[in-house]
Specification:
Helix content: 25-40%
Number of domains: 2
Largest sheet: 6 strands, antiparallel, barrel
CATH architecture of the largest domain: Alpha-Beta Barrel
Strand order of the largest sheet: 11-12-17-16-15-18
Radius of gyration: 24 Å
CATH class of the largest domain: Alpha Beta
Length: about 450
Amino acid sequence: MKNKPVRLGLMAVSSPLEVGAGQTSELLAQLKVTFEAANYPGLEIVRSNGLVDDSFSATETGRFFYNQRVDAICAIAASWFEDYLILDLLEECKVPVIAWARPGMETGSLCGVQQLGFILKQIGHPYCFIFETVDSPAAVDQAWHYTQAAAIHHRLRRAKIGWLGHRVEGMTDTTPNELALKKVFGPRIVGIDIQVFLDSTKHIIADSLNGQWENLKNQVGQVVSTHDAGIEALQFDSVFRTMVREKDLSAIAVGCYPHLMGKPCLSASLLGEEGVPIACEGDVNGALAMLILTWLSNQAIHNTDLLDPIPQDNTIVFSHCGSGGFSLADSPDQIILGPVRLMDRGVCALFPAKPGIVTLINIVPTLKGYKMAALYGEAIRTEMVFPGNPLRVRFASNYQSILNWIVKEGLGHHWMAAYGDMRQPLEYLSEITGCEWIMNS
């Protein structure tokens, strides 16, 4: 899975009369060095050609950034500046703004940024505020997280989520609000007819998949599923890949329960490793959550239910039937390709999840739009306490308080988990999109 470029426009703004206006080139150079020293994966710095100190240079710089397709603009205020300069720039390149004020009693930098914040807030344009020197690692880290969120938003506006079949009857929390989904986050839902899909799998020649099945068997510790089940799973995988290519899909939600249980699971494991997440039970909102975490973390994502706490060590076990990517296993030797629980058919990748810091999110529709909730904790090693991909997480809070919080907030039962601390860019993404944001640390 390759990192997609995240493009940040770097510029300086000032007013010619003010103290510090002559330092714009020096400040930009220093800020660029600080970003480069941090070595953020996939970050591309696009530095403006000149300083912005009048309406003409603002418009020219905005057009330059638009042509460079930047995801966000970081504007360092060398001095006080007229607020309309950024407004004129944004008319040419309407992306989120990092408004960076620098310390300095006589520069007026902070005053200028406060004025800018006032007007951006009033017009509803997304922005982030920083007050720090340009050599501050913590400040560029904040700017990086905001730029990540802006880049995710940029990609989501163009994303398509395939919906195979329908959401499971009785799982209302997985129902997408199609119009709100488009308005808030951006993806468009692409319906996939279930009968057309199943007919397509029958046209994939079974013998052509024998080699692929044998190769997969060599990557895991044990295979319990039958040869025929493996071939059928790869026929599903072949059609999924055709759908992704022909319909330009970024993620898929599959209405698997109960009639397709065990059949799309292996494809979810394989495509998840390649950056195309597949959510279970027709959960389009879950597919969105998986897609966001995939792009933020550049790794496969856990698709889970919150199952049950283990009071003895204040942990909570999350898992689904076994659709996780192989890289999520604690060890390849522990992966079993076996039939799905309840139906005893198909191919699931069964393994205990590897340990590490994890961020889990749940996205649900509301009557006003969408809500995103986050949990943050540490996954610890576990046994196969559930026939799937058990992820055992210890949180700072007592498990009972977390459960009470989830039910009180009216959240859904699907939690998507990524390794790493994703809280800050997720919060920024909620600010940029206008999605309601809540978190329990």
